[in-house]
Amino acid sequence: MATAVKGAARTAPPLPGPERPRRIRVLSFSQRLSRWDVKVSPYLYISPFFLIFAIVGAFPLVYTAVISFMDWDQIRQSGEFIGVDQYAWILTQPAFWVALRNTFSIFLLSSIPQLILALFLAAVLDRNLRAKTFWRMGVLLPYVVAPVAVGLIFNALFADNSGQVNAWLGMIGIGPIPWHVEPFWSHVAIATMVNYRWIGYNSLILLAAMQAIPRDYYEAATVDGAGAFRQFWSITLPSLKPTLIFVIITSTIGGLQIFEEPRMFDQFGEGGSANQWLTITLYLYNLGWGDWNFGRAAAMAWLLFLIILVIGLVNLFVTQSLVGDDGGRGPKLTRAQRRALRREARARRAGRKELRR
Amino acid sequence: MSPHTTRLALSSTALLAAGALTLAGCSGSESDRASGGETTELTISTFNDFGYTDELLQQYTDETGITIVQNKAATSNDARANFFQKLGNTGLADIEAVEIDWAPEMMEYADLLAPVPSELADRWVDWKNAPVTNADGQLVGYGTDIGPQAVCYRADLFEEAGLPTDPEEVAGLFTTWDDFFDTADEYVEATGQPFIDSVNSVTQGLMNQQDSIYEDDDNTVIATENPAVREVFDTVVERAIPVAKYAAQWSDDWYASLANGEYPVMLCPPWLRGNIEGEGPDVTGWNIANVFPGGGSNWGGSYLVIPANGENVEAAQDFAEWLTSPEVQLQAFENAGTFPSQVDTYEDEALTSATDEFFSDAPVGQIGADRAEAVEVEPHKGPLYFQIHDAFNNAIQRVFDGTEPADEAWDTWVSEVDAL
Predict the structure, then answer these.
(1) Residues contacting A115, CB < 8 A, separation 6+
(2) Which of residues 250 through 279 in chain B touch A, CB cutoff 8 A?
(3) Cβ–Cβ below 8 Å for A77 and B395
(4) Could you list the mean pLDDT of each consecutive 10-residue stretch along chain A, which spans 357 residues?
């Protein structure tokens, strides 16, 4: 294509001399092709993304939006328009609110310990260890295990009667915990699966950020007599802020969409007899693939989208107030200072234009 | 917790919609259906193990020259998801296996299935046909196997508890549900151990003996007003929960206890024998009593159906007719232990002489035939059966776990059913 573009430049009509009248030339087909090439190709090159997005992104969005207002029969591909009934139905279901509660509970139970442990692990890995790569790969290992496999393994561990966890707890004198009966304990068990998988991943991200902190800071702090803990608190943590925000946002989105672990938590995969560990995505799945009610499932999907949107905005405001400069380098400026800088730049530009004239 | 789960959820939504897109694009391609006759290959989808070995299918190829391709799904649930995603569109095999549990959901779309020639109807035990007969009395499914239940028990544990051990005598203990629960109480009192594996199996047995349960014949939901359902609930709560080890089957705990030989009694359709032996091959003392409390009760079984818009409907009908003939089903029984639903097989020496070594050489063929004939009713199950029954089992589970007292669990169930 590059040659075609060059060709277009070469065959372009020569600039008319000052005294010769400008002639209108009929372009040959190949010339016209070259011109189209210049105009159209860029769009063509980026079109695959938009085509694929239209098929797997935009179409499903519109499709779910449409059928969420219908009583939809997926098999006959037909339905009846019923307005917002599906949304109203979901919002009046106790199961929906229980699912919302469970989702947040599991999210908090997994995200908070996960972050703390990941920070701790990263701090340990940041030290001068022997066989660094071995340890780093080691913490990532659980991440490689498929979530469904994690579910199967932890299911056996967390079985109420025959599970190892209760056997171990029994050894230290703690009575058997009803993992599959009490909502709180089921959330703890599920959060454990999530943590198992994601702690290593998050520690590596945090580790990468830690290694980017200039070592001079630590040297200076050591000279000033700061201990390891003080260094961690006053140098490492503040420098990690942007990365922490990234980790928090991704784990929030992931946490709101938690699915495999609760689905694998018992033999039925429907969230428990009293919806103890029913999450929003699991509820969506039950509505769609359990009841074959895709209109309802679509409405649920849009509700989930709205929930995530709201949480995302809350997240944004909170983190923005925590760190004003969204992780960018350079000094933090007040609004007045920024305005002053902009004025200065404008003045400089105007000055240059003046000179050219 | 991750961008990955995010992506997964997104992609599954996308998949659903993309699937819908392709489906929408494909509907209306019915015109290219072949007129039959020149078929050289047929496909059949089954799940678990139907006993259709390559040798068995080869017989049909030898007779007709048609090659048979069998796709096996791992579980009935996988098969269900696949079936409903493709029904009415393209992508289904010429013959699809359908489990009785989701046959009621399928019957809403009975018009999308090819009918079974009416002269074949007498081939099956009559209650086998009811779930796959449409409102006009047209049969749309070819019955394969059934699950006539007997009572499996551990003679050694019975002896320890001071109960009789001989199958005939044991059968005398379980004629009615009252007798069954009395024996259970006696056992629990003598040993302090649970008597039966799960409450759900009792619920299943009781429900399948009612004339009507959750939906009446025109699929109106009557579950919450039906006195028979409330009676089952009360019986189960008062008598089955105290003597059962677990509320539900198939959990990790349930399997562990099965392997440890902790159940003296299990309500036992023929296919469950495979699980009992497979999970606890070292457990000894299993035997089978030729009885079921309150008469006969069926649990499980499957059908073959033919999607009406397939390319080889007529050839598929011939093949399904051959496959569900008494002779071929007897071979399947020998291959995989799937108990035939064909009446003629019950007189056949190959079936009546069958015994099971693991179950103290119990005459499993004769027991199955007797139990199949003892089944009197099969309650009507409509499109909502699966969900209502599921919610019912959850209510029982809540009572079992102590999450809710019985009345509250019932009320919760009523409100769940009303919301459907």
Answers:
(1) A202, A244, A247, A248, A251
(2) 250-254, 256-257
(3) no
(4) 44 53 72 87 90 90 92 86 92 93 93 92 87 88 88 90 91 90 94 92 92 92 91 89 85 87 89 92 91 91 91 81 54 73 82 68
Contacts of A76 in chain B (CB under 8 A): 88, 109
Q: What domains are there in chain B, each with its CATH number?
A: 31-146+300-352 (3.40.190.10), 150-295+371-419 (3.40.190.10)
Fold entry, domain A95-337: MetI-like fold (1.10.3720)
Contacts of residue A200, Cβ cutoff 8 Å, sequence gap at least 6: A118, A121, A138, A139, A140, A141, A142, A143
| CB spacing of B3 vs A259 below 8 angstroms | no
Across the interface, whether the CB atoms of B13 and A60 are under 8 A apart is answered yes
The answer to whether the beta carbons of residues A276 and A180 sit under 8 Å apart is: yes
Q: What is the DSSP string of B140-181?
A: --EEEEEEE-EEEEEHHHHHHTT---SHHHHHHHTSSHHHHH
H or E segment to which residue B339 belongs: strand B339-340
Please identify which residue in the block is written with the tokens 């196997």: B145
CA B228 from chain centre, in angstroms, equals: 22
Picking from B81, B256, B387, the nearest residue to A162 by CB comes out as B256
Q: What are phi and psi of B66, to 5 degrees?
A: -90, 125
Please list, residue by residue across B37-63, b when 16 or more beta carbons sit within 10 angstroms of its beta carbon and e when fewer do: eebeebbbbbbbebbbeeebbeebeee
Which residues share a beta bridge with B150? Answer: B268
The token duo for B165 is: 């051990």
Q: Where are the alpha helices (DSSP H) in A126-257?
A: 132-144, 147-157, 164-171, 183-211, 215-224, 228-231, 237-256
Residue A303, amino acid: L
Could you give the count of Cα atoms lying within 13 Å of B85 in the half-sphere of its Cβ? 18
What ipTM was predicted for this assembly?
A: 0.81
Question: Using a CB-CB distance cutoff of 8 angstroms, which residues of chain B are in contact with residue A259?
Answer: 5, 8-9
Residue B330 token pair: 């007897």
* Contacts of residue B225, Cβ cutoff 8 Å, sequence gap at least 6: none
Query: Which residue, among B334, B331, B386, B308, has the nearest Cα to B105 in the 3D structure?
Result: B386
The CA–CA distances, whole Å, from B378 to A349, B100, B131 equal 88, 12, 8
A chain contacts of residue B81, beta-carbon cutoff 8 Å: 289
**pLDDT tens-digit series, residues B26-46:** 433 333 344 445 788 999 999
Q: Mind listing the pLDDT tens digit for each residue in B170-229?
A: 999 999 999 999 999 999 999 999 999 999 999 999 999 998 899 988 889 999 999 999
Distance CA A60, CA A54 (A): 9
Token digits of residue A16: 């008319």
DSSP label of B364: H
Domain positions in chain A: 2-14+28-86, 95-337
Residue A315, burial from CB neighbour count under 10 angstroms (0-12, 13-18, 19+): middle
d(CA A63, CA B20): 9
Which residues, including other chains, have CB under 8 Å from residue B224's CB and lie 6 or more apart? B413, B414, B417, B418
Q: What residue type is assigned to position B328 of the chain?
A: V
Longest dimension (CA), chain A: 104
With an 8 Å Cβ cutoff, are B5 and A147 in contact? yes
